Amino acid sequence: MNSLNIRNIMWIAGLLFVGACSGGKDPLESDSDSVVKTYIFPDDFTNDLVGKEVTLKNAMFVSSTYKGSATGNITLSSQVLRTPTDKVMPGTSDYKKALEENMRNKLVLIPGEIVLTDEDHTLRVGTRMENLKGKVSVSGDNYALTITDRPVIKENRRPQVPEVGKYNMKVASMNLEYYMASPSMWGHSNGAKDEAAFQRQRKKVLAAMKEIDADVYAICEIEEGDYSVNELVQALNEEYGVTGKYKGIDSGDKKITSYTKNAFIYDTERVSPYMDFKTYEGTYLVLRHVAQCFELKENGSRVILTMNHFKSKSGNNATGGDKDQQDGQSQFNSRRVQEAKDCLLTYENLKKYYGDTDVLVLGDLNSYSNEDPVRIFTEAGYTNELQKYTPDSWSYVYQGEVGYLDHSLSSSTLTGQVTGAAPWDINASEPAYFEYQYTSFFQPNPYRYSDHNPIITGLKLTD
């Protein structure tokens, strides 16, 4: 018998010995039930994985975080998902492709008793998780993963106020999410339910305004009438321990209602209003489309600031062209298109009235960056400053997708004087339980004073 045959016999004998010690299992077969395999989400996920223990090869990112409490399920994706119409044209094949990809790329994470929040009790959108292990199931239209161990969570620190270049005027646009200071409005459908809730809201809003330290605050979702604006101006002055440093522009409305409006608050040491406050042409809630020219005290240069709050995408009374066209722009898009057209017409008149062509368009347009209302501005020669300076950031998070509903758009003569524009991501990426309605995690800091991020724009105005 040659040496090859001897080696073969010895190898077979060894296998027989191992087989006997292993209880008779075939030594050439693996015990698949005890092996946890690794997979890539979403590429490798099929219904065949349901009920199985898996480990994810790839990192995942928080795309939808906690609501009213620091327990329950969240949503992860293999990358931060952008709302399709924030990056592609509505209704196109690119839109349909992005929509399908986003729907496929959402994994419901079921943490059970495992704590995922950090020392600040937060879990921000965009937080990176690695080494995810658990059992696969189905939750609604998505796959789910019930984790068995805490994953490796990379730090996603709360950001500082963003730098916006070497400016001589800083403008902040802020959605205050129903700032209703009048006690007669507490407990209604919107805003604080009582004085304690309002005081929590007030502290958060003031903390944000003080850290931003803007020369002009352009505000939406503040109570109609002059009560709330005056109250906020007084509170801001008290926060600085001064009298008269900050003032609000008188919009002429005195009657308190459950509706909200737009307003301007400005630093009297830095700027002064030039000529009169103006509302726009058109019929939809005129105090949600406002304008004021401001003059910079250091050199006398001027800029027309406009603050807008377009019709929302929600509601149950849409008819005709206002109905959802299934192109990604949701309901009332035709209304928002008309608002944008009204704005452009009004701005031409404002340029003549104020004797200046520098216009900065701000506010919650309830339209993502590639939707019709925003493109009406850019096609008319306005520059989308957020797409220019911070295209990968966002002002809003909805159903696990980020994007810009809030904008900073400059007229052609102002564009060269813009030094930067950025959102301060203190709201949209934070869990909702930091909002003033809740008490468990309340802190008098800026985080989650609203559901929209404030937008900060730097201007270097010249004579």
Automatic annotation (TrEMBL):
Q: Where is this region: Disordered?
A: 314-335
Q: Which InterPro entries match?
A: Endo/exonu/phosph_ase_sf, Endo/exonuclease/phosphatase, ExeM-like
What organism is this sequence from? Answer: Phocaeicola massiliensis B84634 = Timone 84634 = DSM 17679 = JCM 13223
Q: Which Pfam families match?
A: Exo_endo_phos (PF03372)
In this protein, which residues make up the domain named Endonuclease/exonuclease/phosphatase?
194-452
- UniProt-recorded Gene Ontology molecular function terms: catalytic activity
| The protein, known as | Endonuclease/exonuclease/phosphatase domain-containing protein
- Span-the-membrane segments of this chain are none
